[in-house]
Design a protein that fits this description.
globular; 14% strand; alpha/beta; 4-stranded parallel β-sheet
């Protein structure tokens, strides 16, 4: 059985954290909900995230299956590069990530891209097949990065409207 954690975060009083929680619990009714309210700009200042991050790393190291659910990719981190680095780190630790509004970047999609390698033939054609496999993996990474960058642009646009 997987340990399920839903991470909800809002950064301004105008946002509603309840919607995120309801969205997560609708799909993952047994998820433990972690709430981060009115976060500041630094990721290191997110106390609840830091606790969750430490916990899931320990659980994963102990052999438990762990999943973190976000309502949207924008709730993960603010910076696209930081998101991608964290995504890869958690993926490499065996921690599943689910983004309800962006399912195309869930870690299971990334896993499928890694597993869908074209089988080698033992001939010179393998040089081409290896290139195709690398391209498919690169394409999956690029789709994830684009989603993270778009979420960052959306956040900046909304932040500028509020100001």
């Amino acid at each position: 059985m997987k340990e399920e954690y839903g991470y909800c975060r809002i950064s301004t009083p105008k946002q509603n954290i309840d919607r995120q929680e309801l969205n997560i619990l609708e799909v993952y009714p047994t998820a433990h909900i972690i709430k981060e309210v009115y976060t500041v700009t630094k990721t290191t200042d997110r106390k609840e995230w830091n606790k969750l991050y430490k916990l899931v790393k320990q659980e994963s190291a102990a052999g438990k299956e762990v999943i973190i659910i976000f309502d949207s990719v924008s709730r993960m981190l603010r910076n696209a590069d930081e998101r991608f680095t964290l995504y890869e780190e958690l993926f490499n630790l065996g921690i599943d990530l689910v983004f309800l509004k962006e399912p195309h970047i869930n870690t299971d999609t990334y896993k499928k891209a890694l597993e869908s390698n074209i089988q080698m033939t033992g001939t010179n054609v393998d040089f081409i097949l290896e290139g195709i496999n690398k391209y498919l993996l690169s394409l999956a990474k690029e789709q994830i990065r684009i989603s993270f960058e778009q979420a960052e642009k959306d956040r900046e646009r909304i932040f500028n409207i509020i100001l």
